């Protein structure tokens, strides 16, 4: 009896102290795979680091860190094919959607910042856009002697090294790159192709509006953003972009605040640059 009591006391003390109790027989817990939250710990750390980098304004580093987190989430799914359809893996899917949205938001914000730096009085890009629409060949620019010497070397290279833009996501990446290069005519053509395939593609509409804003066409940008909001009323990106449009180009701070607050209510992150415009 005393031995039984001693055993019970030791067990109780171990339980109270939070100690793990070894049982010499097999247990179902030993055969259970790790929880999804445990598997996602490395990815969660990367996501936190990416958030901090973005908060510090290190956009490129933040995007790379987010992409590393996505790769880690993909690895988890690939290594657990039998568990992917289980309800617990919804957490991973939601995490992936959040990270993907964060990447898109950072890239779009970066592209808009680059585009806003263009002076509207510079009509070079607008002329290219006009020529592209009307089928005119661009005027050849004078080349320095050393540039002429490089022409023959470049002839052996592919005319366009970019991958075949067969999927909307690939075309979006090309359009973003063209927007960074301030090639508005190319952006318009690529976005047009995307919208012909998917007329209500919110990401494409947001990017189209960014290009229109960069060219000073507030009326066209507002119309495009209205369409983006209607196509995806639960996404915050179009609300934020409408707020930028109203605050920066139309001087309507009260309207801009309403759109920003609407975007925040839909889960949008704090946008320090936008909040500065709203002060």
Plain-language structure description:
The chain has helices at residues 2-16, 28-31, 36-39, 41-55, 59-79, 90-116, 124-133, 145-155, 168-180, 184-197, 202-214, 218-231, 237-248, 253-265, 272-278. The protein has a domain at 32-117: Methane Monooxygenase Hydroxylase, Chain G, domain 1 (Up-down Bundle). By secondary structure, the chain is an all-alpha fold. The model is unreliable at 1-28, 115-123 and 142-168 (pLDDT under 50). The chain contains 15 helices and no strands. The protein is globular and about 60 Å long. α9 runs parallel beside α11 and α13 (237-248) runs antiparallel to α14 (253-265).
Average predicted confidence as pLDDT: 72
CATH architecture annotation of the domain at 32-117: Up-down Bundle
Count of helical segments?
15
| Helical/strand content category | mainly alpha
- According to CATH, the fold-level topology of the domain at 32-117 is Methane Monooxygenase Hydroxylase, Chain G, domain 1
Which percent band covers the strand fraction? under 5%
Tell me how many strands there are: 0
Please identify the oligomeric state: single chain
Shape: globular
Helical percent range? 55-70%
Uncertain segments: 1-28, 115-123, 142-168
Overall CATH class of the domain at 32-117:
Mainly Alpha
How far is the N terminus from the C terminus?
Answer: 77 Å
Question: How big is the Rg?
Answer: 27 Å
């Amino acid at each position: 009896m005393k031995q039984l009591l001693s055993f019970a006391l030791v067990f109780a003390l171990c339980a109270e102290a939070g100690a793990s109790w070894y049982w010499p027989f097999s247990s179902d817990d030993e055969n259970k795979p790790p929880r999804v939250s445990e598997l996602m710990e490395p990815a969660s750390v990367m996501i936190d680091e990416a958030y901090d980098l973005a908060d510090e304004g290190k956009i490129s580093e933040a995007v790379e860190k987010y992409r590393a987190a996505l790769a880690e989430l993909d690895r988890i799914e690939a290594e657990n094919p039998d568990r992917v359809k289980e309800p617990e893996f919804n957490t991973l899917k939601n995490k992936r959607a959040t990270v993907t949205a964060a990447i898109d938001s950072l890239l779009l914000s970066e592209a808009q910042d680059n585009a806003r730096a263009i002076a509207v009085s510079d009509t070079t890009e607008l002329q290219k856009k006009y020529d592209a629409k009307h089928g005119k060949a661009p005027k050849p620019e004078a080349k320095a002697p050393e540039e002429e010497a490089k022409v023959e070397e470049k002839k052996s290279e592919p005319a366009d090294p970019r991958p075949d833009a067969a999927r909307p996501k690939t075309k979006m990446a090309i359009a973003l790159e063209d927007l960074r290069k301030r090639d508005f005519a190319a952006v318009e053509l690529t976005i047009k192709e995307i919208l012909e395939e998917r007329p209500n593609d919110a990401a494409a509409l947001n990017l189209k509006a960014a290009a229109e804003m960069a060219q000073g066409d507030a009326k066209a940008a507002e119309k495009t953003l209205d369409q983006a909001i209607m196509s995806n009323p639960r996404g915050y990106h179009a609300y934020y972009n409408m707020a930028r449009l109203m605050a920066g180009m139309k001087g309507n701070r009260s309207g801009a605040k309403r759109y920003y607050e609407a975007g925040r209510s839909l889960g949008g992150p704090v946008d320090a640059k936008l909040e500065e415009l709203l002060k």
